[in-house]
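Sorry, any thoughts here?
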Amino acid sequence: MRTQRRVFEKLSESTKVELASEKIELSLADDFKKLSSKAIKSGSNSGGDMQDWLDKLPKLLSTLKESLKDQQNVISLGEKIKKEIKELGVKLPSNIAKEIKGAEQWESEIKTIIKKAQGFKL
């Protein structure tokens, strides 16, 4: 009788282990299904947004290139003004110096943005 009880106890322990592993596997499957659904949904949502962005990219690049030319024109004219003022022996007005410096900073930023944007071409 004792042997029979020990056998049943051992059998019940092994059954519990199997049930526990099946429960874990089902839990992982449920987690996987939830994450997969979330990934599909977020991918679908961003796909539309990404396509809109990619459609606008050529116009953005064109606008940036136009702005870059404008900044370069400001810098070029500013340099001429600096040269003429220096020849006259007059101090460069601070507002002009600030405008030139600002145009140089914008030129640098715009070049960086254009370079990055051109890397997105698909």
Residues 54 and 121 are 8 Å apart (CA to CA).
